[in-house]
């Protein structure tokens, strides 16, 4: 896959993108979620 | 270098003027102790994310680890994955939220203070502060050397003057503007780093004819791996090293696990969770932090490995050979020969920004650890007022220590500084920090035991067993007459993999054997 034969490497390559995209989705979903926020007064 | 020195000089001058402006803003906004120590707990999520990322990623992560990928291959992408998943997601979502709340509940302004107050122990705060104050200058030393070497080669100035310039500039805004100045400048530096690395990735793939073509070219070169590396288990730049081989152990234990997990217990990063006003800010920061780290280590490791294919196609040699055997030169050689000259300027700024952003946070953390945690809270039992001024003096003192270390220690030891510091932090702090946040049954005695056992087992392993540190340190040789007291695979297993589990076990056993923390105090911590 992607010119890389060893599955241990292309898995890492893909996981880098998946985890970064996961961070984006998580941040976007929680963007305005201020329930139980424990804010500083 | 292809670019004229005056042009680069002017660009660096403009950059430094903006840095000073941001430093001045920090100075103006700093009125209370909380402002100086934790940026008033009012930092914007974008600034938090970039500041965390830019502090996390130093020049050595790009040049040193990128060069390591040039030698060892794309297996290092597991570290990039760990950096994003553990270093950002787990750190912010699990540790960040609880750190912020507990820091606020206990009115803690530093990482050692958070631990000390959670376990009601000045010893924990003082010992942790001293540990950071003693070992972080070593880590700051390597970043300082990297930054100064950059100034030396790009501006053609004397190395000693480069060290002086870099130290004075960073010290000036850290001492006057505290953490606000550090984080504002980090955000600018992080932005420059992001742009620089994004260009690097795109240019590299274009130059190599696309993503798949570039990887295929590299995969086809596996028979070109030098014999010295194949003997250690190297199977090619797009393959993991042979399972259980020395290179596999180095990659998995020191790089992927050591640096990948160690980051969670880094004091200069953990303190940043206390700089925002609510959990929403932490969640928003995850959105920026994940892609930022992908662009840093993900790109550095990919490009580092791909440089082999580029050099093979252009000069018929692999990267390590082009760099004359010094892996630290792989990335600079590749950038200088493969990238357009205008990009070289941008990339020089990227590297300067990476060095300065890490250095500024190190200076701030060392100063607060010695000035506030060790001297004011532990030695003086919190009697003295004037936290900011004591911390300022301590920052100046620890900076001096870093500069002196950068001069007197041999490069073979300094080169291991990042790994030593990360490993030590993981063993000393991770069990205690995890317990402080997630395990109410953890007691003061359990925390102290894990701190002591973690610290000394880590130091013991690196001085007497782990070859990479034990040989240059020479302590084992001096006492026992042998380079390492164990042999075989043990000598390539990183201290973090031995000391951290021991410290965790000690923390659990001692906690269960001692009297639980009073409920009243726990209610205050976890409210």
Automatic annotation (TrEMBL), chain B:
Transmembrane segments: 6-25, 46-69, 75-95, 127-149, 161-184, 191-214, 247-265, 286-311, 338-359, 390-413, 419-439, 446-464, 496-514
Listed Pfam families: SSF (PF00474)
Subcellular location: Cell membrane
Keywords: Cell membrane, Ion transport, Membrane, Sodium, Sodium transport, Symport, Transmembrane, Transmembrane helix, Transport
Principal subcellular localisation of the protein: membrane
Gene Ontology terms describing biological process: proline transport
Bilayer topology: Multi-pass membrane protein
GO CC, one annotated term: plasma membrane
Single GO molecular function: L-proline transmembrane transporter activity
Keyword Membrane part of the UniProt annotation: yes
Family matches, as InterPro entries: Na/Glc_symporter_sf, Na/solute_symporter, Sodium:Solute_Symporter
Family: Belongs to the sodium:solute symporter (SSF) (TC 2.A.21) family.
Name used for this protein in its record: Sodium:solute symporter family protein
Source organism (scientific name): Methanolobus vulcani
């Amino acid at each position: 896959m992607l010119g890389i034969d060893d599955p241990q490497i292309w898995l890492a390559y893909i996981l880098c993108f998946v985890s970064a995209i996961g961070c984006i989705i998580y941040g976007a979903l929680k963007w305005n979620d201020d329930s139980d926020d424990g804010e500083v007064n | 270098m292809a670019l004229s020195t005056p042009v680069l000089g002017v660009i660096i001058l403009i950059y430094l003027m903006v840095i000073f402006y941001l430093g001045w803003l920090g100075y103006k906004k700093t009125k209370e102790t909380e402002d100086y120590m934790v940026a008033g707990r009012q930092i914007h999520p974008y600034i938090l994310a970039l500041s965390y990322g830019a502090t996390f990623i130093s020049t050595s992560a790009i040049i040193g680890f990128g060069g390591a990928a040039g030698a060892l291959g794309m297996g290092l992408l597991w570290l990039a994955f760990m950096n994003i998943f553990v270093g950002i997601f787990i750190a912010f979502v699990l540790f960040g939220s609880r750190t912020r709340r507990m820091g606020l509940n206990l009115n803690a302004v530093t990482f050692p203070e958070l631990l000390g107050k959670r376990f009601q122990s000045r010893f924990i705060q003082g010992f942790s502060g001293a540990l950071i104050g003693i070992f972080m200058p070593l880590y700051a030393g390597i970043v300082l050397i990297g930054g100064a070497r950059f100034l030396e080669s790009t501006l053609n100035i004397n190395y000693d003057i480069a060290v002086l310039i870099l130290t004075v500039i960073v010290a000036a805004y850290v001492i006057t503007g505290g953490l606000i100045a550090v984080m504002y400048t980090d955000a600018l530096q992080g932005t420059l780093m992001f742009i620089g690395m994004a260009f690097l990735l795109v240019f590299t793939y274009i130059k190599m004819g696309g993503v798949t073509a570039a990887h295929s070219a590299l995969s086809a070169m596996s028979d070109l791996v030098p014999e010295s590396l194949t003997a250690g288990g190297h199977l090619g730049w797009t393959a993991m090293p042979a399972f259980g081989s020395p290179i596999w152990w180095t990659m998995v234990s020191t790089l992927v696990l050591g640096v990948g997990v160690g980051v969670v217990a880094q004091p200069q990063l953990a303190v940043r969770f206390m700089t925002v006003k609510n959990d929403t800010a932490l969640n928003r920061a995850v959105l920026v932090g994940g892609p930022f780290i992908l662009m840093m280590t993900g790109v550095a490791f990919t490009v580092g490995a791909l440089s082999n294919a580029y050099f093979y196609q252009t000069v018929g040699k692999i990267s390590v050979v082009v760099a004359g055997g010094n892996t630290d030169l792989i990335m600079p050689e590749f950038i200088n020969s493969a990238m357009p000259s205008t990009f070289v300027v941008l990339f020089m700024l990227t590297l300067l920004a990476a060095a300065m952003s890490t250095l500024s946070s190190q200076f701030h953390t060392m100063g607060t650890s010695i000035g506030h945690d060790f001297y004011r809270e532990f030695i003086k039992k919190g009697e003295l007022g004037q936290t900011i001024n004591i911390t300022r003096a301590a920052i100046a003192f620890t900076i001096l220590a870093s500069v002196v270390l950068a001069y007197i220690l041999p490069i073979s030891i300094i080169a291991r500084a990042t790994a030593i510091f990360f490993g030590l932090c993981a063993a000393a702090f991770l069990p205690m920090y995890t317990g402080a946040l997630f395990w109410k049954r953890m007691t003061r005695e359990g925390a102290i035991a894990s701190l002591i056992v973690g610290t000394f087992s880590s130091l013991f392993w690196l001085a007497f067993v782990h070859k990479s540190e034990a040989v240059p340190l020479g302590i084992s040789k001096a006492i026992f007459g042998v380079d390492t007291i164990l042999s075989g695979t043990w000598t390539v297993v990183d201290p973090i993999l031995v000391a951290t589990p021991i410290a965790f076990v000690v923390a659990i056993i001692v906690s269960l054997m001692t009297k639980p923390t009073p409920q009243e105090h726990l209610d205050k911590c976890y409210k």
